[in-house]
Amino acid sequence: MRGIHYQTGLPIRVTIGQGSIVAVEETGGGKTDEWPVIAPGLFDIQVNGFMGVDFNDDGLTAGQVESACLALLERGVTGFFPTIITGPVERTTRLLGVFAQALRAPGLAEQMIRGIHLEGPFICREDGPRGAHPRAYCLDPDPELLKRWQGASGGLVRIVTLAPELPGSESLIRTCRAAGMVVGIGHTSAGSEKIRMAADAGATLSTHLGNGAHNMLPRHPNYIWDQLAEERLFASMIADGFHLPDAVLKVFIRMKQEQAILISDSMMYSGMAPGRYTSPATGDVRLTPEGKLHMEGEPGTLAGSASMLLDGVRKISGLEGFSFAWNMASIHPSTLLNEPAKGGIAPGAPADLVLLKKRGTEIAITSVVKAGKHYPA
Predict the structure, then answer these.
(1) In the annotation, is 265 catalytic?
(2) pLDDT for the residue 295
(3) Angle separating helix axes 62-73 and 89-104, nearest 10 degrees
(4) What is the SS3 assignment for 209?
């Protein structure tokens, strides 16, 4: 495979064997201006659903999971974390079982799903930090419940987002870290001491920093400043044009640098027509013609995102440049999770690649390679 390296701009030849990259060589010859740009596959650690499939729907099937995987792959995502939000305990248990079933069958789910992200229920009950999560199902950290869920999923739970001010949070963070899970701070009203405690206990992520927060905060200190200043925390962020203003994105990125992660936080409405929808997870929501997804009757309360990870790459490309934006959506999250893809386009890395055409911030995917197999965009 020949193309232009997404970072260096140099023509390269990538040799693939048995699903991995065997060699990467600089090359020449031919009309290189017609060659595609070659970039690592996108890696989204927060996906609530996609193209009509809701990962929080009690009726979710393994077949729907597989169809969502194909839709994501066609848009450049070669690995992702289905995200289950706060809801009834039994529903979460059933959903985890569905994902375990999907991964037992040969197919894209088994190749693409790198783990499950539990966003809740161990989160703040207050309006603002709770976001669109239903208050009735918010719980204090419960190690036995998490153990039960991990059993139901067959060990798939790899990210847990929680509020560190809740009783029992420090113990749960340490338990998660000992089991090899990543712990994210999110949907929190924690003070400075609790943010520091969480990092001391092993938390390494701020989940969608700047969102799931009070509308009004003290000038300083506050939990956004505290997480920005905490050097042990990566920070994920949503760049859909609604969750965070450009100026905030730029500040977050400048502070976190290689610890800045781009997520979609996509809901099942990504790619769908504007209108009113009812979600089993959040209730009635509205998708505006501009692409904003909010709670019905509450334009100020976002209900997740209806954008795709590639949309965020386009946004960040205009702020920080293309290669950095792409790394935020591929290399940086892979580094957080210690995934083999953290090596990027290099021998030994998975042959998970995106071929694209780029002009300025306009990005068009032409094809996707997953484990060495080509798929059309």
Answers:
(1) yes
(2) 87
(3) 70
(4) coil
* pLDDT computed for residue 161 by the predictor: 98
Is 345 in contact with 56 (CB distance < 8 Å)?
Answer: no
In which order are the strands placed within the sheet that holds 298-302?
275-279, 283-287, 293-295, 298-302
pLDDT digits (tens, 9 = 90+) for 189-211: 999 999 999 999 999 999 999 99
* Res. 31: pLDDT tops 90: no
Query: Environment class of residue 338 by beta-carbon count within 10 Å: exposed (0-12), middle (13-18) or buried (19+)?
Result: exposed
Q: Which two tokens stand for residue 268?
A: 């099942």
Nearest Cα to 305, choosing from 324, 323, 288, 284?
288
Residues 6+ apart with CB under 8 A from 200: none
**CATH number corresponding to 41-342:** 3.20.20.140
3-state secondary structure of 126: coil
Could you say which of 265, 284, 311, 352 is catalytic?
Answer: 265
